[in-house]
């Protein structure tokens, strides 16, 4: 393993700039959830890609947010953690988002001493000299080893980006067995998929008040049996979630099951239960139980 390269790469950026989409392209599997709504990615998700002579360990961080709630603070802790243990930072921005030059996160990144690749996403929607102009502007704000324009959605520039990432990694033996795709247990992905469907099916307030806990995950030879408990903050939200004669919850369940079946390449039996947990956002104890702290 003399010339083997390996390292931890943190994907950092504002919500919706395309972090999850990019990581999925780079890893080649649907590992983290993608929706058009911000903040769906609350956990650090590790995706690992290995070849004979390299191994890249990605973490897909939550977006950069104001620590408004206890929950948000916990998310910020993930972002900071992601910076600390990284060999390389992929800082992603897109055509639409801007970050002021005095932003504390930029300061933290510039002072971290960790090499940065600046990734400029969504160039498929750019016109004229927009890409050139915006990147020129970014060069003044962020010290990066390279500034790489891409479209994660159309896989433009992503192969070149991959080469640049590998170039930046230190010589190191692999951290994980080469056939291991991710360090998260399968039930984590089950929870993420159910949560994604809730985000897609209800208006703002409900998804942000919801947490999903997988209380049973039985991987049998022919079928995976999953029991998901969906926690909401108030009784009224429980009603919305379930819907008239259970129709809304049934839709979520069906959509989640279909995705789970394609994700696990296996038949899935999914049971969903809605429960009320008063003000879970504010309760550190509950956050702990849901895996945000520990
Ligand atoms: P995250 O919050 O940073 O993880 O962003 P997501 O990966 O969830 O993407 C947010 C939205 O941007 C989704 O609707 C994506 O389909 C879209 N998106 C991501 N990459 C691109 C891209 O290269 N071009 C375009 N046009 N849309 C993109
Ligand atoms: Mg995301």
What's the number of domains? 2
Tally of individual helices: 10
Give helix % range: 25-40%
What is the beta-strand fraction?
Answer: 15-25%
Order the strands across the largest sheet as they lie in space: 2-3-1-4-5-6
The CATH topology of the largest domain is given as Rossmann fold
The SSE string, one letter per element, is EHEEHEHEHEHHHEEHHEH
* Largest sheet features: 6 strands, mixed
Instruction: State the low-pLDDT regions, or none.
Output: 36-41
Query: What's the number of extended β-strand segments?
Result: 9
Task: Give the cofactors and ligands.
Answer: guanosine-5'-diphosphate, magnesium ion
Word description of this protein:
With 294 residues, this protein is an alpha/beta fold. The protein has two domains: 5-168, Rossmann fold (3-Layer(aba) Sandwich), CATH 3.40.50; 186-289, K homology (KH) domain (GMP Synthetase, Chain A, domain 3, 2-Layer Sandwich). It contains ten helices and nine strands. Strand 7 and strand 8 form a beta hairpin. Mean pLDDT is 82; it is low at 36-41. The structure holds guanosine-5'-diphosphate (GDP) and magnesium ion. Magnesium ion is lined by residues 19-20, 32, 41.
